[in-house]
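note to self: dont lose this again. the chain is below, predicted strucutre after it. 130 aa total, dont forget to put it in the shared folder this time
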Amino acid sequence: MASTRSNATITPDAPKPNGNYSHAITVGDTLHMCGFMGDDPATGEVKGDIEEQTERAILNIEAVLKAAGLTLDNVFQRRIYIIDMKQFRKVDAMWGKYFKEPYPVSTCVQIGALAKEGAVVELEVLAAKK
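---
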């Protein structure tokens, strides 16, 4: 399915992309979002433990959803990229503070490194207009 750059979403309320990509692109009724680490939108720095980084990533996701006219309730899939799989339960517990049943479908993958120094988790979601 083709998409056009006119369907891109970028908001100053989320961290500036640290590469050549948009925060999100809408194709049909689906918002395809980039991955978010725990970057502070004001400084671009990643700080804190895995819970703090997860919460910041969720807030960054929420800012992009808002800019696209959606909310966390529109999220139907999440992908978690994590440095240490033993920390998964902490990420999932933080996720549970923002999402209620029925939860989005999920995939979690342990990886060797992330694009920003100090980052230990990255979240990527798909959302659909209801």
